[in-house]
Amino acid sequence: MFSSEGGVKTPGKEEMKRMKENEVMSYQIDPRTQQQKTTEYNLISLTRKICMEEDIQEESLAEFKERRLGGWGLLQLTAGTGLAVYAMWAGILMPGFRRVPLKLQVPYIPASKRQVQNVMTLLKSRSGGLADLGSGDGRIVLEASQLGFSPAVGYELNPWLLWLARFHAWKTRNYGRVSYRREDLWKVDLSGYKNITVFLAPSVLPLLQEKLLVELPEDALIVAGRFPFPDWTPCSIVGEGVERAWAYQIQALRGHNQSKGIKMTVESS
Ligand SMILES: C[S@@+](CC[C@H](N)C(=O)[O-])C[C@H]1O[C@@H](n2cnc3c(N)ncnc32)[C@H](O)[C@@H]1O
């Protein structure tokens, strides 16, 4: 079974036959009990099987080593993987975001039931139009519409989420009452909305502060979920931890800026 080079060698047909005959003979003249003999026979067969399997594994490994990737193959593999990841990002996770600068791209993370409730608590006693900036699957717009906000509009760039939002509206018989628009929130004119909701990343909030201060009417209220606006003082807060939501009155914010001599400007892109 072992070759002269020290490696494991598969026994040939003749050798196997001889081994089997020896085994049978020693088995016949062996004085041990039938059960002992059977156990030993089974052990020998198992050992032989393992040796043969090791041979096959070594052969496959040698074959694989011979076919190792060269530099060009590695480059192709890397490029292919990169392309697949990009296609997944651009086509499934962030479609419609090609024209939005990378630092302003916010991925989809839906608000929890508690977060939606907290936002609605802060909107109590409010009325008029509402816009959710980055509306995802439309859950906030839908809830706001059921509380009587009209028009209730969601701005979203991801077409899959827009489709899902419309489907939810249709399923809950609210299709005509809500509206989901495929528009970049940075380019929407918000001057007609008295109520704004945002569930966005902290990285984009400083820029959004400027846009809201310039565009919103004097009696507007902004509700932010998950992350507060970095430079503003809220008029009320509801919830704890990641479920927390903050409300801001635009009038108070402008008054504060005026008293500090801060000018409102928005750079056009
Ligand atoms: C954190 S999710 C919040 C979704 C939803 N408001 C909710 O609370 O369930 C942010 C959403 O904003 C959308 N979004 C990000 N940037 C946008 C942009 N420039 N214009 C429109 N939608 C945007 C994303 O596609 C994503 O669905």
Automatic annotation (TrEMBL):
Transferase found in the keyword field: yes
Cited InterPro entries: FAM173A/B (IPR026170), SAM-dependent_MTases_sf (IPR029063)
Biological process annotations from GO: methylation; regulation of mitochondrial ATP synthesis coupled proton transport
GO MF terms, alphabetically ordered: protein-lysine N-methyltransferase activity
Chain intervals for the UniProt region annotation (Disordered): 1-20
Record key words, sorted: Membrane, Methyltransferase, S-adenosyl-L-methionine, Transferase, Transmembrane, Transmembrane helix
Composition skew (Basic and acidic residues), residue ranges: 11-20
GO cellular component: mitochondrion
Entry's transmembrane regions: 74-94
Similarity remark: Belongs to the ANT/ATPSC lysine N-methyltransferase family.
Protein name listed in UniProt: Adenine nucleotide translocase lysine methyltransferase
Organism, scientific name: Electrophorus electricus (Electric eel)
Gene: ANTKMT
